[in-house]
Amino acid sequence: MKEVSLNPYPPAEVLEEMTQVATALVKRQFYQQGYPFDMEVNLSGYYEWLRQTGLCDVTLINVGDPYKDSWDMLDTDVFERRCIDFFAETFAFGEAHWGVLSNGGTDGNMHGLFFGRKYLEDVAREMGLDEKQGKPILYVSHEAHYSVRKLGDILQIETRVIGSHPMGQMDTDDLRRQLDPNRPALVAIAIGGTFKGAIDDQEAIAQVLEEKQPPCVYRHLDAALFGGYLPWVEEDSAKKILNQQHQKFDSIAVSGHKFLAMNEPAGIFLCRKEILNHLHNSPIPYLNTNIPTISCSRSGFDCLKLYWRIQTTGAEGFRKETAHVLKMTQLLREKLAEKGIPTYVNPFSTTVCMPRPADRVVHKYAMASNSCPHFGEISHVVVMQFFNETLIQELVDDVVSGDCA
After folding, report:
1. Pairing of strands 267-272, 251-255
2. pLDDT of residue 288
3. Over the stretch 302-316, which tens digit does the pLDDT of each residue have?
4. Class of residue 161 by CB neighbours under 10 A (exposed 0-12, middle 13-18, buried 19+)
């Protein structure tokens, strides 16, 4: 028990201001449609449990490898491992996998590019390549998430930006032109481009790599939103996209705060276990362990929250939610088409692009907007679990009228 007595609540005037802001945020929650967040996260039971158990007043930090077997600090590694193993099975990694709950999609991409660089440099040395020839080149589509190019800069990896098709998919003919066959290739593959929701063609990319024969290759998948639902789509062609045994990718990053409905930034990073052998970490004596992760400390609550989500939803729940968002996506397209408004949607995507509506409509629904050389000024909404027919009808009416309450 603390000897210093602290107030459980802030001063009345501060609490009133915070309550007003909270009320306004809740009032707008279902109008945040331009970004891929589920605005009904179903976590009230989790927060009640935290209060009931007293964990709400405990500091929980997970450090380094969640698979470590000797640790004295408070941690929730056991639940982090269960979350990782659940997604490793979902993505068909098999037993030889490793992973960590990251601080978000960008952190997952950072791990993918860092692990990829270390792996490729190590393999290049084993092959006898000199330092210059052994430096990898990062290849990423123009329409992939902006974090990948930023991370390439941070990690000082030469980066080549590959062109894209009008709907946002990587142009593999351009990849063929730009790929250097004499240096290791670190290929960042977008499974759901940020603005148009395009899925890069892994088979076509693999064919280019087979033709050009770079000395070694590392494939990292950025599956921020799509990683949450693609494995639960009924069509077999969708299931194969994130099947590691089929596609042979080396690592994958998925956001926890998108389809997986965690209410703050979090993510999952998974890779082949063999990749860890190329990091060459030195043990930290006072921690009595290696630290393969980039972030030393991570939230010990994130894995509790994600494990709660997995256990309260289950495979059947994920399948039903996936079917729902795809059904609502089709309904939105049909209702806009009835009003003569075109939409642009990639296969298996819930990102619905349309000609940019009036500014007040864009602002009401927090739409993301962009200028596209092929389609002009466009905006998008991302259909998530909270969408229903009533919300869709209101959106369509506002887009058509150009006005909104």
Report:
1. antiparallel
2. 55
3. 999 999 999 999 999
4. middle
